[in-house]
Amino acid sequence: MAFIGSKMTGNQYNKSKIDKVIIGVGAFENHGYHMPFGTDALTANIISEKLAERVEGLMVLPPINYGLSQHYNKLPFTVSLSPETTTNMIKEVLSEIVRNGIKKIIIMNGHDGNIAPIELAARSVKVQHPEVTIASLNDWWVAAGKLVPDDMFEVWNGLGHAGEGETSIGLALFEDLIEMEHAKGVVPNLPEFVDIKWRFDELTDTGASGDPSVATKEKGLKLEEAVLNVLENFIREMDKTNWNYGFKK
């Protein structure tokens, strides 16, 4: 049984053996002409719910549907929080989870702009509550890309905002919301090792980078399974030590 927090009653919670939670963090922003604005939150939340079907004692909290998307805000329809608000929202949600007695927390991030706010928020809560374990999958697209066959992607290693990889996993998770006939992207010319702090409208005029036109559901299913395996294996290994890590086990 998957414990979906927004659908649970107090009675059901009291009878459960929930000892850990996962929360998706997404964004509301343009994802090209072909993907829904809520892609990042949808991906993070659906993966979280599928994960809860595989492991014991994990409750899925409602996702945070807005994030730090200021670098996408030239494209309609983007609704961004400020860096400070994004960080504080994540921090307050984490603090409330701890206040409710949960000491094992997983963050499933779906959006690149949230990585820095998650780091700041999680570090702050960890310092305040050293007994709590906070783990974050910051960039599923990088993790999954390392675990699928090397020859699976056709363009730019599957990378890109609403590109080959993200569109593929979208086809696996919410195919009915994607309009592949409008999938079009641009592969930007960016350095390999130096990180340029771009605005997205500098990279593409379609709202998508990479090449979403070569995305397929079959590729997406492999990405989905790779992400779920990473998270499932992490939880099972942590459960073996009651979520103790480092040299103090």
Globular, elongated, flat, extended or rod-shaped: what is the shape?
globular
Number of domain units: 1
What is the structural class? alpha/beta
Radius of gyration from CA coordinates: 18 Å
Poorly predicted sequence stretches spanning 5 or more consecutive residues: none
Q: Write down the CATH class.
A: Alpha Beta
What features would you describe in this structure?
The protein is α/β, with parallel strands linked by helices and 249 residues long. The protein has one domain (3-240): Rossmann fold. Helix content is 38%, strand content 10%. A 5-stranded parallel β-sheet has the order 1-3-2-4-5, with helices on both faces. α3 runs parallel beside α4 (115-128) and α5 (140-147) crosses α7. The radius of gyration is 18 Å and the shape is globular. The model has no long low-confidence stretch (mean pLDDT 97).
